[in-house]
Amino acid sequence: MSVRKICRFKGCSYGDHRCAHPWWFDVMRHGVRYRMSVDEYAAPRGAASIVRTKEEAKGWLARFTADIIEGRDPRQPPMRPSDADVATVADCMDQYAASHFPQLKGQATARSQLKILREHLGDLPLAALERPAPIEDFRRAFSHRKPATVNRYLARIRHMLGWAQARGLVTRTPFNRYSLIISTKREARRSRRVHPAEEQALLAACERIDDAKHWYAGREMRPRMEAALDLGARRSEMLAVRNRDIDWRKHTVLLRQETTKSECTRAIPFDPAGRLARFLESRRFLGADGHVFGKASSGKRVGSFRTAWETLVLLAHGEPAERDKRRGRVNTAGLAQIDLHWHDLRHEAACRWREKGLDLREIQLLLGHSSLLVTERYLNISNDELADAMATKLWGGKGRKR
User: Fold this and answer.
1) CA 83 – CA 11 distance, rounded (Å)
2) Most exposed of 179, 218, 280, 340 (fewest Cβ within 10 Å)?
3) Do 215 and 127 share a structural domain?
4) What are 243-251's contacts with CB under 8 Å, separation 24+?
5) Concatenated DSSP letters for 222-270?
6) pLDDT digits over 1-11, tens only?
7) What pLDDT was estimated at residue 83?
8) Cα–chain-centroid distance for residue 244?
9) pTM, full prediction
């Protein structure tokens, strides 16, 4: 497997990388030799100019080799669909959704993103997205939205174009370091903490919705909040926990691969004498298949508890918990002012672990993050905490006096 020049055999005075002759691929696999000019391979696949350096040629070699491994003959030009098959961006979105979404966990979110993208880009020819201009127009049209929201839409476009390029629907994608990039610098880092007083107010509000009017949601919401703060699990992971996932010998809660976002199984320890252990013990009567954080009486899995959570947040902060409209959400203006999300409980769990001495790597494993950079975004360190740390560790004091 190599990238080389074959001009030495044609009387070239240099016979190496200094000459102006083209680079060639020369790959042997399963007894078949694949040899062709790098420029002939790269041109129909989106190369903007001829390949001059060996480093550029090696970059194309990886794609050349991938074609061979996947069973395609790289010496043949990429197949482009007929205009009748995929004429517009909307047609590509339909094929992308049919191919990619069935194995996707967050299908509802992805379909919602495609719906918005279809409204703005769906009527364009698919080839138009090979250039950055339409995507830049979309970014400007959404400039009033939060940068993190816009970046998620751009990431969906980038993934769809990568999917389309791999199938020969487009020859290039504008997302690269010289054209379009998705910058996270302007994204606001969320620093919402759930302090003990607010936690107690939320738990106390559970008593106020433990009645027939609220379908006795309080007795189910209290242990869910306590578990979120003690385990740091995502909502979907927690709701999928069954009694058989509780290891009473090791005192761990098993989050199975098929229920986690990272598709990795992880076991989260819990305090055998703590509040979570007492609740788990009370749910053992549901049997091995009962969902621990499901219905209190039957153990049936719960799909969502958004209304109950939003009602708790409003009541805990002294806001009215009335619906904006029939079968609508409760007091959206009040919720926006309070700005407390269920996922903030997971952030709070990570911050409390850090305060109690766990290091960054241990917190990463407990949260199930694939990167330490993601874990760092969860740890909200205040200026007072920084000052206390410096006073204790650098100056030999016992922290600042307040």
Assistant:
1) 46
2) 179
3) no
4) 243/283, 243/284, 243/286, 243/287, 243/288, 243/289, 243/290, 243/292, 243/299, 244/288, 244/289, 245/292, 246/280, 246/292, 251/277
5) HHHHHHHHHH---HHHHHT-BGGGEETTTTEEEE-GGGSTTS--EEEE-
6) 588 887 755 55
7) 46
8) 28
9) 0.70
Tokens standing for 236? 């979907």
| Residue 295 shares a structural domain with residue 268 | yes
**In a shared domain, residues 53 and 102:** no
Domain range for 141: 89-166
pLDDT at 136: 94
Secondary structure element (H or E) that encloses residue 3, with its range = strand 2-4
Q: Where are the beta strands (DSSP E) in 256-388?
A: 266-269
Q: Which residue type occupies 15?
A: G
pLDDT along the chain (402 residues), means of 10: 70 61 86 88 76 84 84 76 69 90 84 95 92 93 92 94 84 83 79 92 94 90 96 95 96 94 92 96 94 92 92 94 75 92 95 91 94 86 74 70 52
- β-bridge mates for residue 323, sequence order: 330
**What is residue 150's predicted lDDT score, i.e. its pLDDT?**
94
Whether residues 208 and 317 fall in one domain: yes
Do residues 244 and 278 both lie within one domain? yes
Q: What pLDDT is stored for residue 172 in this prediction?
A: 83
Determine the pLDDT at residue 165: 84
Cβ(312)–Cβ(321) under 8 Å? Answer: no
Q: Calculate ∠ Cα 108-161-183, nearest 5°.
A: 80
What CATH number is attached to the domain comprising 233? 1.10.443
* HSE value, Cβ hemisphere, 13 Å, CA-based, for 258: 4
Domain count within the chain: 4
Q: In what order do the strands lie in the sheet with 266-269?
A: 246-247, 252-255, 266-269
- Are residues 271 and 310 located together in one domain of the fold? yes
In a domain? residue 81? no
Choosing from 69, 99, 127, the residue where a domain stops is 69
